[in-house]
Design goal:
3-stranded parallel sheet; 4-stranded mixed sheet; elongated; 202 residues
């Protein structure tokens, strides 16, 4: 019997960053996936992420899960958390539970999980980075290409011609460094294997 608890940054239906507690428990059983949800509308895509997390964890650990039950518990104060962005965290927590290893509580991750173990892009990176720092995390793992965020800043230019003033607005793209904006170290990862060395303590 093994229980792993991880902090997962999420975004609620208002777009605010919220801290979510995820517990994964591995117990002798019949290969079932059980979910225990507290005050949360549990989206189909989160259920799909759990199924994918189990398959990826089984491939990485080479542990036959036909006689193991996995119990997933998600606790949050937010009423609704949409999106599959907990997929990578679900996978890492499942691997840690199966291998009976502890996780580094200073590291958090966001990202979807694909069947080949690759980590896919998600939204709300900056909000998640800030809530992770507030929760005491030191390192935030994000999908490849998402360590910087693009914003479009309006630039207004006016020109006076005779009695008339003509103005145009152009939008310039600016890249926001999540590390600088949120005050937490950010590392990009492409595959769940890359995240293991930061996340799981040997």
């Amino acid at each position: 019997r093994s229980i792993v608890v991880v902090n997962v940054p999420a975004v609620d239906n208002q777009g605010n960053g919220v801290s979510t507690i995820l517990k994964v428990e591995a117990i002798p059983g019949e290969g079932r996936i059980l979910t225990n949800i507290n005050q949360l509308l549990f989206w189909v895509d989160t259920q799909y992420s759990i199924q994918t997390a189990k398959l990826v964890a089984e491939n990485i650990t080479n542990i036959n899960l036909s006689n193991v039950d996995l119990i997933y518990t998600i606790e949050t104060v937010a009423q609704v958390i949409a999106g599959p962005s907990a997929g990578a965290a679900l996978t890492l927590a499942t691997i840690a539970a199966l291998e009976n290893k502890s996780v580094n509580s200073c590291v958090v991750i966001t990202g979807t999980i694909n069947l080949d173990g690759s980590v896919g892009p998600v939204g709300g990176i900056l909000a998640k980075a800030k809530v992770s720092k507030d929760a005491g995390a030191k390192l935030f793992l994000v999908p490849e290409g998402q360590g910087l965020q693009s914003n479009y800043k309006p630039i207004r230019r006016c020109e006076r011609v005779g009695h008339f003033t003509y103005c145009t607005v152009e939008y310039e793209r600016e890249r926001i460094d999540i590390t600088q904006q949120a005050g937490i170290e950010v590392k990009e990862i492409a595959h769940i294997q890359e995240a293991l060395k930061y996340f799981i303590q040997s």
